[in-house]
Amino acid sequence: MTALLYDLIFMLPLGMIAVFFGGFFGILPGGAVPPYIAMLLALSVCLSFKHLSDRRKFILPGLLLAFLLGALLIIDRERRAELFTENLWILWAVLITVSVYTAGRLTILYASVRRALMIADILFLAVLLFAGQKLEKWVPLPMLWLLAVSLIQEVEGRWTRSGDTDHKGHLVTVLPFPILLCLIVFLLPASDSPYDWNFAVKLWERAESTVKHVVSFFQGEKEEYDAQIGFSEEGAFWENISAAPRELMKITSDYSADSMIYLRGKSFDAFDGRNWTSAFQGTDRDLMIDLTETACAALSRGERAFSDYMKKSQQRIRFLDFSTSYLFVPLKTEIADGMIDQILLQENTADLLAQKSLSYDDEYAFSNYRLNQEHEAFGELAASVSVPSGEEWDAAWEYISPPFFKQSKDNGDDRDVWKPAYTDYLAYRQRICQAYCPETVISERSSKLLEDLLADASSDYERLVLLEHFLSAYTYTTSPGLLPEDVTDPKAFLDYLLFDSCQGYCSHFATAFVIAARYLGIPARYVQGYAVPVERAGEITVTSAMAHAWPEAYIDGLGWISFEPTPGKKRAARWMVQADYDAQKSQYAPDLYEYGREDENSGLSEEKTAPRAPFDLKKVLLPILFGALFLLLFFIGDHVFCAWRYRRQSDTEKFRIRCRRNMKLLRYLGYVPAQGETLEEFRSRAVPGLSEQALAFTKAMELHLYAELSPDAQTIWIAEASEEILWEHLREKKGRRGLLYRIGLTL
Hints:
Layout: H1 2-24, H2 34-51, H3 59-73, H4 77-86, H5 89-109, H6 111-131, H7 141-157, H8 167-173, H9 176-187, H10 199-218, E1 247-253, E2 259-268, E3 270-271, E4 276-277, H11 286-299, H12 306-309, E5 310-319, E6 324-326, E7 333-334, H13 337-343, E8 345-348, E9 351-358, E10 363-371, H14 376-384, H15 390-400, H16 403-406, H17 408-411, H18 422-436, H19 444-453, H20 460-471, E11 475-476, H21 490-501, E12 503-504, H22 506-519, E13 524-534, E14 538-543, E15 547-555, E16 559-562, H23 578-588, H24 592-598, H25 603-609, H26 618-648, H27 651-668, H28 679-686, H29 697-706, H30 713-734, H31 738-746
Parallel strand pairs: 11-12
Antiparallel strand pairs: 1-5, 1-14, 2-13, 3-4, 5-10, 6-9, 7-10, 8-9, 13-15, 15-16
Helix pairs in contact: 1-2, 1-5, 1-7, 1-8, 2-5, 3-26, 5-6, 6-7, 7-9, 11-15, 20-22, 21-22, 27-30
């Protein structure tokens, strides 16, 4: 038993790992239980052939074949070939298990193989940790088990021991400890996101960041920007821009795939033809005022339709190789509880700033509302919005405000100052128009171009969308050249881009969009930040190459809306609205009740009224019957074979067989010779519980073993008589279970 447990300690986890990877690579059914059952059965057959030296090793494979034969007989002949093709993975499971058994034997026999396996195990677990791979607990558990038992084996191999030096027995003895370790790991709760074990990378990043900060301090640089790729405190235009990707931030988001996260950094309101500057003085309520105004527009169609236009998302940002006072957040961001308590926000010039410079490993979380801006329903909403009333304003605030805002009055803290009152909103509208829609003059040819372009537009939002599409048809380049010296005002800049240069990068097209929007009487501003493409939800690395500039326009009653006029940059992400679902239902899901009533013979009615197939007992009993028949034939055949072979053997072999059977019967009765105990001592100890006749064969055994006397017919008869008496004792002690012992004795 010890040898069997020792083999299972290594082979069972190896088999589980092999089956998991078989499912991962598509060889076996992934995430299913049957491959593991097939592996256990095949491994049991391999171990039975190793540990059973007699005929018992044929029982398990014979039973499996009998069950398989019985199952095949109850299956239609036409279906058998199809089933074989569908279950071809069973052959792969058997081959994988045989390979696992071979690898397990090599691991047990050679310490070098075991050490190589342990190193590979550690490396693979390390890769899983550093990659943040999210797996079910039971997947790395066999690897942890192999690592634990291999370490125990290595420690034992270096001990100087006396007495019992059986290392297999030692490992089996301490088996409860690795079992307890794996059980604790399995039962302990785990977070939804992988634990960040990248401590080595963090140490390196921290050291690198510290060196850069020290250098920056002595050079007199407070903050780090690469203005050439679109984000800078200075809104200048460059002759050439180049991307030197540097990892700046990590953002964890639940955004859907094929969308874009626009992280606003700094906004500008004044343009002199060559540079953008910022003079607008915002308030600490402006962010929530804008969000509430947009919510009023969405709720104007009813609470049920709110998610047609706005959806809430969660993000978290952690800084890497970056130092700044700006907080990068999307446009419709909700001031979060943690941002107030930990970051201590200041809002100035419509931007979010921290009171201290943020650098490596600083992080903050926030919620924001995505807009279904690419859906035609959003355009319809934007074309029909109006200024909300005071009641609508209060209702929208109650609908979107976070719980900690609603509880602020009860708790007696000062967070209620963030709540935007309706009077704040009215004053905000006036400030927006004054700051972001100054009187803008453009040339006659630019005016004519816009007039022709927007002739069919019926709303400000539609005009902005047409303008966005028009500018995105120009040429994007990272080498636009310097602005001519005669470009000294917005009018000259717009003419230069639209008619002379016809190319540029994001700053050029965002600026042209803002100038044109202001000429149309729509407040607009120029924004710098990062445009982060999203391929899947989860963690995304923000690099310096993602720095970007884009315009935002204000639509009265709807709030600020972002646009993307840069050629090749726009990602048209949208989601279905309720009207889309209703249209699908009416098109693909007819009234089932009416359909069933009009056509009683339809396939749907037949499916609903079809009787359940009766349980076929034959399908269960036939494989069991074949298994039982195999066992019966096996034992009968074995008995006949043993009797035939017994008759052909010599008296010495017959006597030895009887003695082995008698000693096995004594073990069944609980009498086992102790280590170093002679047959005479054993007989003296066992006689009180049995009888002299039951142990008479032991005297003949002594003469045969020690005096080397050959047994004769009389000696064999004594051994046979002792066997019958021992069987009587066994029947008295075990009752009906004695039949099972007789079966075991024959094997």
